[in-house]
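Mods, move this if it's the wrong board.
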Amino acid sequence: MLCHLKLHHRYYGYYLCLLTVLLFSCQSDDEVQLDPEVASLLSSLEQELVPLDNNPLVWADDDLTFLDPVAEKPIIGLGESTHGTAEFFNAKRRIFRYLVENHNYKVFAFEADFGESLFLEKAVQQGSKSQIRSLMSEKMHFWTWRTEEVRNLLEWMSEYNAGKSEEDKVHYMGVDCQFNTYHPQLLNQYLHAANASFLELSDEVLSKVKTDSEDRFQGYSPEEFTTYLGQIDALQDSMITHQDALTVATSEKAFELNLRLLRLARQVSEVRYYGSIEDYSVNYRDKYMAENTAWMLDYFGGDKVVLWAHNAHIANDPNYGSGSIGHYLLQELPNDYSTVSFMFSQGDFMARGFENDQIAELDQHTITEKPQEESLTEVFHNASSSTFTIGVGDLQKHTEWSDFFKEGTRYLSIGAVFNNQPQDYYRSFHPNLYDRIIYFDNTNASQPFR
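Not the wrong board. Structure tokens:
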């Protein structure tokens, strides 16, 4: 927009004053308030960013070539700065398809329960698209994944697998370890079907795993919990001792999977027990989600893995408890893991409410406030493109960005719970956290099953 005033010398001062006012009125509020540091950061950001369409489902393969360098790694972590944003979910669906079709990725590992995922994995393997919605409704523990966006992804995976050979199929797996709802049951079924010679031991141990996990090991002393873990380890020893017989009765892959189910039962037990006594000296959940992700590389014969989890989990963050998933993965597989985080500034998303120190019901929330000053989110919010991707390393080529990161900045990151105070959800940002960022300035809420 241009602002024009025809000046008359008699009213020059008046018109000059008015011109100044009108010139500022021609600019947006953001432009008026932009400080020199943000302007400098924006200048180099504009040189490096790759604009994207606001709708990820229309991204063409040519739009996604920025993924090619990170796709050289066998594991890619795809993050999210809320658990209830449609654009994040649709972007991951589109990216996974690109990675499958162009980079030989085969496994989508979710921040979801390992046991529950096996029911959905079976449908995906069989190409049973019609079963997906009911299985999601019946088996999934978390509202976060019971959405239309995730359903569309799983249905695409089942369609993709139809008519393909076993080695060409894609897989859906969970890596999380918070519940023992299915692990004891599934392992018990396997051992009985294989007519294991140690059924009396397995029945006793797995029954205890089920009931005591549900009770969160209430009343357990540290010594009693150590004894309990020893019983699980004894069952594991029995399975390994009789591996040949179990493999003959079933298959090598079935044995490996069920041995992992027992490992999950132990992981869940530790997560729930140490959580119940508020011992957070070790971030057992992230440590074990990393272990389960790495295990999938072996189990699926080296097929590449995409990890779907929150930004906080996929990050290379040694200070997230005793470390995030990304931190543990990079310790074990230092050259085999890359990360793509997802960020936003404003818009709608789903989350549980938080009022008076109590978690409330699931609801749609909206952020309309401007981003926190001097934050990474504020800089991104002022970019010319409302949706874009940027390599963190590309930003660090510029002195102003290196200095900005050294001084310390923050970004908006919300989990499954939101108290309607966005300023409470700005987290420290460090350039080592992620390799690449995909940014949506304004978002829409995911669509949960009703």
